[in-house]
Amino acid sequence: MYYGVSYYPEHKTKAELEHDIRLIKESGINTVRMGEFAWNRFEPNEGEFHFEWLDLVIENLGMDGIKTIICTPTACPPAWLVEKHPDILYMDNRGVRRPFGGRRHYCYNNKSFRKYSALITEKIGEHYGGNPYVAGFQIDNELAQEGTGRCVCPTCSEKFRNWLKNKYKNIENFNRRSGAVFWSQECNDFSQINPPVNTIEVGAQQQIHAFYENPTVRLDFERFSSDSLIEFQNLQTKILKKYTKYPVTTNATGIATNSIDYYKSTKELDCYGFDYYPGLRDTAVDSFPYAFARGIKAGKPFWVMEFMSGGGHRLGGSGRLQPNPGALKQAVIQSFAHGAQMMLHFQFRTFPIGAEQLNYAIVDADGVPRRRYYEMKETAEVLRKIEPIISNSKFVNEVAICLDYDTHWALRIKPVNDSSFYYFDYCRKIYQSLSEVGVNSDVISYDQDFDQYKIMILPTGFVLSLEMREKLKNYVSHGGILLGTFLTSVKNIDNVGYVGSLPSGLSDLFGTTVEEVEPVFENNHNHLKIEEGDCSITTTDEIWSEILSDDSELAGKYLTDYKKDKGVIARNSFGKGMAYYIGTDFCKEDLKTFLLNICKNNGIFIHELSGNDKVEVVRRRYEGKDVYFIFNFNSEETEIHVSGMFIDCLSGKVLKGKHKIDRNGYLIAMKSV
Amino acid sequence: MYYGVSYYPEHKTKAELEHDIRLIKESGINTVRMGEFAWNRFEPNEGEFHFEWLDLVIENLGMDGIKTIICTPTACPPAWLVEKHPDILYMDNRGVRRPFGGRRHYCYNNKSFRKYSALITEKIGEHYGGNPYVAGFQIDNELAQEGTGRCVCPTCSEKFRNWLKNKYKNIENFNRRSGAVFWSQECNDFSQINPPVNTIEVGAQQQIHAFYENPTVRLDFERFSSDSLIEFQNLQTKILKKYTKYPVTTNATGIATNSIDYYKSTKELDCYGFDYYPGLRDTAVDSFPYAFARGIKAGKPFWVMEFMSGGGHRLGGSGRLQPNPGALKQAVIQSFAHGAQMMLHFQFRTFPIGAEQLNYAIVDADGVPRRRYYEMKETAEVLRKIEPIISNSKFVNEVAICLDYDTHWALRIKPVNDSSFYYFDYCRKIYQSLSEVGVNSDVISYDQDFDQYKIMILPTGFVLSLEMREKLKNYVSHGGILLGTFLTSVKNIDNVGYVGSLPSGLSDLFGTTVEEVEPVFENNHNHLKIEEGDCSITTTDEIWSEILSDDSELAGKYLTDYKKDKGVIARNSFGKGMAYYIGTDFCKEDLKTFLLNICKNNGIFIHELSGNDKVEVVRRRYEGKDVYFIFNFNSEETEIHVSGMFIDCLSGKVLKGKHKIDRNGYLIAMKSV
Amino acid sequence: MYYGVSYYPEHKTKAELEHDIRLIKESGINTVRMGEFAWNRFEPNEGEFHFEWLDLVIENLGMDGIKTIICTPTACPPAWLVEKHPDILYMDNRGVRRPFGGRRHYCYNNKSFRKYSALITEKIGEHYGGNPYVAGFQIDNELAQEGTGRCVCPTCSEKFRNWLKNKYKNIENFNRRSGAVFWSQECNDFSQINPPVNTIEVGAQQQIHAFYENPTVRLDFERFSSDSLIEFQNLQTKILKKYTKYPVTTNATGIATNSIDYYKSTKELDCYGFDYYPGLRDTAVDSFPYAFARGIKAGKPFWVMEFMSGGGHRLGGSGRLQPNPGALKQAVIQSFAHGAQMMLHFQFRTFPIGAEQLNYAIVDADGVPRRRYYEMKETAEVLRKIEPIISNSKFVNEVAICLDYDTHWALRIKPVNDSSFYYFDYCRKIYQSLSEVGVNSDVISYDQDFDQYKIMILPTGFVLSLEMREKLKNYVSHGGILLGTFLTSVKNIDNVGYVGSLPSGLSDLFGTTVEEVEPVFENNHNHLKIEEGDCSITTTDEIWSEILSDDSELAGKYLTDYKKDKGVIARNSFGKGMAYYIGTDFCKEDLKTFLLNICKNNGIFIHELSGNDKVEVVRRRYEGKDVYFIFNFNSEETEIHVSGMFIDCLSGKVLKGKHKIDRNGYLIAMKSV
Predict the structure, then answer these.
(1) pTM of the model
(2) Rounded Cα distance, A78 and C127, in Å
(3) How far does CA B68 lie from the centroid of its chain?
């Protein structure tokens, strides 16, 4: 278990460095991440490499048991490199090159940039690959962040054409599969295809108003750009692995940015690493990103490379709130409870310089340790105590939610009820609903093993391959319970609509056909009644509404307007299992009731610790016993009720019946059986 | 009477085509529009023309009595053409070329593009001009739509300079008439003039903040661009007319876009065609666009080339609601009641491919006929029954509203109380107010004949030529009743302010002078009292407020603040007629009362069918009798009260006293005299 | 005292000119500003100069005692100049040249432009420098307005690099002082540095999303651009002063735009001139811009070159309201009461032409004098009466607020609680709070003399030089009372954070150290209690919250949450004086109570005229007596209560006890002692 901070020795005077290292050592943390923006210190002139400045720090820390994560510094190509090769600069969708002066101003496909990146990586691998004080490597920094993941420079454009050629083999295939006949967009040659000017990149320069491009080309460009970034990343992975046995990863930006398919990008990495900046002031820390992270490599522990540390200023804009006293500790333990193996605060000490000057950190710019520092110290202490439980307990979830980047991208390209519906938020809503009714779930990709789960949830499987159709049918026919929701199996992997009735190719599985679809806006809600098992709910459709065919076995019907008595939820026995199709969304409270009922009916474990919505419970198994990690996110002390007998893992006390948890408090309780 | 759909045989496999054609035939519609985006199928390589793929479909449909509207495909120049002549690409106001990859990526003034457009049009005219199964031709598709009507490429810039030269003859005239002395903008030569970077084009790239250009040059550029688009269109008109006797038109985007002066653009066309996408879910379908359409060619029937068909997805964004059951039928009949001769749904079957994939259509992507299809079928049946009445009844309106593109453009260039005041919405408000009090009105251009109307309404005649002043005076002096409203005769045709007191040159006509003007914002409303005939209303000024001179004969005075007792509405006998000047706007209810009073006092026919605001009544004359088309746009059944005796044209039943109309229902009733 | 209008004889026909001049003369005003956009009339072709058209007007007016302010016309380089030297065009942050067609389309650093500007200025100076009818000169027009103050053309880029070189001497210094090590931004040579793409310029083309540049380079670019504009301005100042003894100034855009440091830019000018367009309809005219203006040259009278005149249309957008009857007169007298020496309405007569056509003016486009004209005439009459008092009375304020452009720019570059906190608004709030409790204050720069004031207020001294630290300590140690507020002494003059504890280097002065900082958003307010002298207030923190060290002498503590009992306001005796540090903002009412208490305790004069918040009182000293200028900004008549005896300076009546002032009325009262 790694706990620590980011640190930037290259910014410091000798005296500051000594001061900081002393504080770091006294804090009890065991990991420091360094080097990710220091290219110009590593290589101040072309071919002239310097590591001594960092070696000293690593050794100094290492002698006291503090390990270093070494980063390759390729997020910040220095001035001399830009000057020599101005074509390495990133080009935005309006053809403007991002200038030297910020960060991430490079094209990941540019050959010169790749050459220089490979060289600095080679040198770093060579130099640090076997250093006993090093714990692992981070490649680059937040790839694609800040709108740098959809370069359209000539290199990228040309490479994209080749990518298409590689996928479609010949132009006739491209024309046919992409539906290029629409608007006479058929090409005689791949050379006639442009990268789209409208991408999902948030940082892209103003998109062209009302300029609608081919959705197949658009999805392909998202994939191509993601693939290119992965290829760039893995050039470094490969080099580092020549020199080291330590884990190699990068810091993803999680489900916040999503310009890269992390399921693909993490394949050659040793673990999934990501950055997470939740608020820590009177708010629950959302654990969906952790579930997502845990699912990337099928349950392997993940690394949090950067984590929120404090209040004050911010990169731009309005500043950050300070954490509540206790919130930082609580959040760190929560992270480990959900499967983290590393958790590093960004960052140790506030920068006085540069674009991130005055931002949040553990220690203020003046270097005086204050409450955040002391809380980090206490946290390190607690972590040492709970390490055995964390490291040796495993997740035993019976429900999984599966999600997919093709669907995410396709829904950004062709939105559904924009801006009310955001795919990952919808998945998050299902995850949280389960959690709040006492069911921990996993979040996995379409590629992972479904059979270990009793219930599989497929939220809006918009883009669905023929293989995935078969996989779902297999899963259910062997006894699985599947919940699919509206707009499932609408498009094929080319982002082209299926011409079969919806859910296309899955009517046998779900026992229903979609007769009519429409978005749900403010003025066209309909009431509906869900009848399933013991559960009878009257609720209201949201986001999107589908009418299911009369031949369906209905678990939900509309109650109002011309949809009255039409189906909205269908249920179908299929092989040994059961498949539900849910043709709309509804409010969280009703979704919780519905999901709880399904879980109960199917023998899913529901934990016995009832708190309230703002008390999160993570259940894991440790040496054959249930261990519960319980977090109070209420803004005041709360009371939980335990059924059965538990042991408080930290105090060793026995817990029975009612038990109080402080504001920002937590409890680690082992079932006493 | 033509009723049908758009269809895209070029997208289809043979099996799909057979399936669709069978459904089309079974539906009872009689018209299909085809070909508007199929340039690459018509001419897959330069000079290689293919029509056989379409001929078969036309013949197949035609044999069963279904006519085809053939479109020229110039909205989508294919890849080979763009590759050979990249200078045909549209250039936006920031100098960026619109790339191949969407549609309408062309400059309408570019010589190469015009040459290729002429050739494909020639071939189409030659091939289909005499085809017995063809009913007419559509040129291009939605000219200027999606921000493609204000190209500033070198060709356009040069042509604009010549346009100015042609208008102003010499640079001294230009300097003088455009007020170029302001900000030292006088030019020594036309070559020094740039197209403005700020245009009214909604799709234009971000306009330069706080960069204020000469309003004369700006209005001239709007006119020049409109003229250029018309010139481009009429190159095709001329060619097609060499080969065909069938009607030739295009599909305008109506008062939604307004980058083209449709009064000018329709002159050489056989009728006005336009596209209309109203909501059909629990909402009244606005008939102002129909009145506008009917007025384009002085009462001639118009064609609706594309009309709303269903719900689901959309070109971009949030999706579309499904029509209420019955709403589609109701809307189609309403359209014919208002003067349509053709009404084609966009489109027959949902696209699985391309930028418009998954959009609304009559039949879903899976090709299964459902309620919208069956409703279209019923509608076709009804239309066959009412065709004699529709085709042989005429409009006999006594009130007209006149509107003008120069005023519209001038008000976009120099807005008045932006964003509360939108000229066409203001005209629409007057139209609807009249309709709701039982008075059908016409909407006409400044160029049309005023003398056939008892009452003429001139809403904000902002840009007013000297000729129009005379026309208005003539109209009133011969007995007409004129209602002019605030900001009338403010500017001359060069978009330069008149230096006479307002309403400039019309004080004799209106018997008043404007003493003071200002916008009306949230905090400076004043109450006012209208006293005219039997009508006494206390209301509140809106949008804009003018104080009229004390020597006016007042029909309305302010009641409050420093404007107390000052005039706001003036009335003046002029020759045999009467002119009203209304120096502000007011709420719709009070506007209705005021207009009803004026209509009553002047013997305007007010229909005897009273419903409520959401029941629309269209009165026409058929064989000497009044025939009423009545539409219930309430969200429930409604009851109307008829005075006198009527015959229900569809059932033949006699109607007297109270009568119920279903939700989304309609009634066609003939006065039984 | 100068009172008058802007006028544009170059727009007029001979008849219009005669008409206008007659009205101007009859109005009683004594000043007209002319020529600021007339370059092409002064020099219609290169090297061909014409002044006769203006000479006639100047002489005609001058013969009747009306003086002219002559403007250099460099805001509008004519077409022939742009055509010959297209490189003079302004380049925005995306590299787009602003075209000819608006105004201010020039680069102030361009050599060709400077040459032509110098020549036309030379000719104007030569021609008008000694003209007896001229009262002064205005250089250019609203420098930097409308987004024209941050040009990044090659000339500017190169010059910026030289500016940096000049400041930092060598690249090592630059790298070190700018913190360029952050994100590997160290340069090997100044040639590698770019002007930032993100500036504070409002008119800049869309800034690059999430592209964060070095804050030192950003602040330096703001200074460089301001310096460049000043340099451009002073090329003209120097030329004009060769030829004239009359005052030379320009028209700043005041604290509205702030792209130029007016403390620097006014140094070589004879007075500070600025444009001011407050609303005049049922609203108080904010006098903070006047206090700011008076402070620019340490109390010297200022000129208002353009002032609001009427309602109707506007440069773009929504139009302007008319002034209340009386509001124009009231506003003009208020301006003189606050230290104006000149006040010119923009403008005499509404333009029918150009980008500003139909905008507000004293006389409408039709040339008919109406109420605004007659009110101007009455105002001129009043001004003649009060001139002796205005010209001979002085300000005797004991409190000053000091502000600074470095802090303003630094807070735009790295905002604090954006968009709630705007530095100048915060300064304004303090100024108004003082005014509303009866204390007139001065607004001065950091460079001015502090010792003449009993109380000095330093609102958020964010960027604070070492010299300023010393100055503050000297001020207090010699007996001054200092109020510093949150985020003081955070950054050095390189826009780099201090590494000392906050307020950096001033803990001895304020007797406190900042322990923790954070913004205050909607959900993290805390209550706090202020105890200072007789004043005990319970209030709520706003905008930003700091926790002060426990060793402080506290005048305010938090009451709630984890901040309970922590300090927020500290008080410290330092030498002979006292320093307060206020670690948050609070609502205006509580700020008023707090400030009033401090003023009372320190013997500050508080005037005896109590009205209400919307009655403004300006106190000056005239011949040893207090004279009060009192303005009623309520929307109705108000009653004031005077203690003691006063004489109404206009009527000569004695005032005692209660006294009524009309809506939009004013009173000039001399203390009768």
Answers:
(1) 0.97
(2) 56
(3) 24
Q: B112 is written with which tokens?
A: 């190469």
Confidence class for position C611, pLDDT limits 50, 70, 90: low
Residue closest to B366 by CA, chosen among A503, A411, A413: A503
Give the H/E segment covering residue A395. Answer: none
> What's CA C43's distance to the chain center, in Å?
33
- CA B133-B138-B139 angle, to 5 degrees, is 140
Q: d(Cα B453, Cα B298) in Å, to the nearest integer?
A: 13
Among residues of chain A, what percentage have pLDDT more than 90?
92
Tell the residue number behind the tokens 């009172």, with chain if given: C3
If residue C485 lies in a helix (H) or strand (E), which one and from where to where? Answer: strand C481-485
C501 has a chain A CB within 8 A of its CB: yes
Output the six-digit token pair for A203.
Answer: 């940082």
Q: What is A399-601's CATH number?
A: 3.40.50.880
Residues 6+ apart with CB under 8 A from A512: A503, A548, A549, A551, A552, A567, A570, A572, A581
The Cα of A175 is separated from the nearest Cα of chain B by a number of Å equal to 11
Looking at the DSSP bridge assignments, the partners of residue C345 are C5, C307
In terms of phi and psi (left: phi > 0; alpha: psi -120 to 50; beta: otherwise), the region of B5 is beta
In A249-326, which ranges are continuous DSSP H helix? Answer: 262-265, 288-296
Residue B259 has pLDDT above 70, yes or no: yes
Interface of C with B in 538-567 (CB under 8 A): none
Return residue ranges of chain C for CATH 3.40.50.880: 399-601
Active site residue B142: yes
* Ranges of residues in chain A whose predicted pLDDT is under 70: 203-207, 610-611, 673
Read off the pLDDT of residues C5-43 as tens digits, 9 standing for 90 and up: 999 999 999 999 999 999 999 999 999 999 999 999 999
B2-151+223-392: CATH topology is: TIM Barrel (3.20.20)
Domain spanning B615-671, CATH class: mainly beta
- The shortest C-alpha distance from C515 to chain A (Å) reads 8
- In terms of phi and psi (left: phi > 0; alpha: psi -120 to 50; beta: otherwise), the region of B657 is left
Q: Which residues of A are annotated as part of the binding site for Zn(2+)?
A: 107, 151, 153, 156
In this complex, the chains that touch C, judged by 3 or more CB pairs closer than 8 A, are A, B
The residue behind tokens 């409190």 is C399
Residues making up the binding site of B for substrate: 103, 141
Tell me the per-residue pLDDT of C195-252, one tens digit each, with 9 for 90 and over.
999 998 876 666 677 789 999 999 999 999 999 999 999 999 999 999 999 999 999 9
**pLDDT level of residue C458 (50, 70, 90 thresholds):** very high
- Of these residues, C201, C213, C222, C306, which one is catalytic? C306
Share of chain B above pLDDT 90, in %: 92
- CB of A101 less than 8 A from some CB of B: no
CATH 2.60.40.1180, chain C: domain bounds? 615-671
The minimum CA-CA distance between A270 and chain C, rounded to whole Å, is 26
Among candidate residues A387, A382, A280, A366, the one with its CA nearest the CA of residue A28: A382
Transcribe A93-144 into DSSP letters. Answer: TTSPBPPTTSS--B-TT-HHHHHHHHHHHHHHHHHHTT-TTEEEEEESSSTT
Q: Which of A595-599, B56-60, B414-418, C307-311 has the lowest mean pLDDT?
A: B414-418
Q: Please tell me the number of Cα atoms within 13 Å of B350 on its side-chain side.
A: 30
Q: Is A26 among the catalytic positions?
A: no
* Sequence ranges of chain A with CATH classification 3.20.20.80: 2-151+223-392
Length of chain C: 673
Q: Report how far residue B489's alpha carbon sits from residue C643's, in angstroms, rounded to the nearest whole number.
A: 57
* Per-residue pLDDT tens over the stretch A448-495: 999 999 999 999 999 999 999 999 999 999 999 999 999 999 999 999
